[in-house]
Amino acid sequence: MNKNYDIELSSNESDNDSDSNETFTGADNSSKAKIKYMRFSPDALKYVSIGHKFSAKNPTKYTSKGISHNMCFKMIKSDSRLVKSILYSYGFTQCSRKNDKVNFIWANTHMNGQTLRTFLPWQRINHFPRSVSITKKDMLHQNLSLMRKHFGGCYDFYPESFVIPDDKELLDAHYSDKETFPPLISKPASASRGRGIQIITDLKQVDTIEAHEKSRVVLSEYISNPYLVNGRKFDLRLYVTVISFQPLIVYMFNDGLARFAVDEYDDDDGFTETFKHLTNYSLNKFSENFIKNNDPTQEDIGHKWTVSALLRHLAKEGIDTKLLMVRMEDIVIKTLLSIQAQVSSAIRSTGLGPNVCFELFGFDILIDNDLKPWLLEVNLSPSLACDAPLDSILKTRVLCDTLNLAMVPILLDKNADNVVAGNEENVMENNDNNDAVSSASVSSVAASRSSSPVMFTKRSKAPFRKSNSFEHRKPYNPAARVKIYSNRINLEKFRKGNFVRIFPRKDTFYLYKHMIEELDFRHEKQDMLLYKTMYNEDPDGYEIAGDVDDYHKELMDAKKYKKTSDLSPETVGFLQEALDEAAEYEREKHANGFRIYPKALPRLHPYARRRTSSQVQADELRRQARIEALLIKPLEQELLRVASSSKVLSDVKSKV
Predict the structure, then answer these.
(1) Element (H, E) at 394
(2) pTM of the model
(3) I need a labelling partner for 226 at 20 to 30 A (CA). Which of 79, 152, 435, 627 fits?
(4) Phi, psi of 218 (to 5 degrees)
């Protein structure tokens, strides 16, 4: 394909566009084709929700654009109800995994290089190649350790860690001469949702882990002086969206989640009580003492708060919350810089267009008693499950704003002729909650077809296009990529919603300039060129006063520099823009005058859940598997009980 769409965007966007979509100038210089991009809003859910008055008055207000342009999506190793609900509410049709010509892909895994080479400029996928280098715990440790060796104290925000079995000798040597063995958090490198986490307190336990674990395990020093709120330990989930790694462009959502341990904290119990020491929501929600917040207007109730509510609480205690958030932004930027070269190399090797990839990360951070934030881990495809009203409100906005930053183009002619693998039609199913396990049978494909199906031409059943399409792509040189992103940033006020752009910024850029230069192995200077384009200032023409490491030491040393007034005037100067924008994190989001979104994910009308026949069949197979699992589990438990009883009886008889 020779035409590279999305190269050049004009900044003529109107915030009052009646159809909630925008028109920009495309990159095809010969035709200056106008390309429209979707704009997503949580409001769309109301118009396809069962029982909502808007769905009766104007059910096609948001779905018409997706239906008329045959917009399609597919899910790969993901079944996120929130993602599907948002896309359904805009008239998108869900296709099977075999479909290769969809507009949008939401995956809970990474694609290999051969697959990535098949992606075309108008498609969008929610992962960058090799971003797994920070979302796998062992790889995060390795990358941050390398950066710490190279940039010293600038990277003093990650607990001392070891990967077992690789670092077993280093661990033994590190703690052999210490009088006491510090507690360590043990986490399987590839696990999530708190699975496999334990606290170990002696080297013998390390030997046991090494002997029994089949995969790598990360051991991190336990932070024994956490900052407590109401006597409880907590951590923060921050939502970060990246639209480019080179040049690096990063947005952080202006709110997040504070997850509290269920029980009050103390460090004198031998670390045997999980609900005191672990803040993982996936674990704590099973405690009988867990308090769920069912009131979306109260952000500081129970064991899950919003970050903004937590910041307001901390501000009342006299804490400089703006500086605290700037320190967290600094952690996010430095973590992403640690893999900038790797991701950029993978993008070049796969020939991906500049707008194809975007990524939503979940950064988990813990604050110690000195108000120093520590990075715990970075999550691939952070959970979008909506277990409470706060989850529904927050995560729906996070997802919609992320999709808006991704800029999904509306291009009918690109997928209308070859939409699905096989000769399929759009179909609908009568079961109104396809994410729930139900004993109701699914309507047959023939009986559930749309009365006005979209017809598709027959095509090969190969799951992806052959990679030779890569050979015909017009290459993107650094200047062209920078022009794309510069124009996207010019338009961000219409797209970013509740996100705050934390990089690049005019002044803080200079704090990271030396890192960027040393990591730019190809000397393309894309970050420098973007800065020059945005601010009409050559970053190479400015010499930072003093040693830049001194400014980073002030950011890292929260014990000595607790407040902005404790920082040097030079450091404050670099951080001023970030400090000013940090007020956005503390702002109350659900006060009177601000829009309140639905308290929970709604049940969608069947007509809104458009799926191809193969996708309906796949959903039916999954539903049947879930039903079977629910039926088999009690039977297995009963068999185990009987077997156990028989063994006990046998043991008694043998003793008699």
Answers:
(1) helix 389-406
(2) 0.84
(3) 152
(4) -105, 125
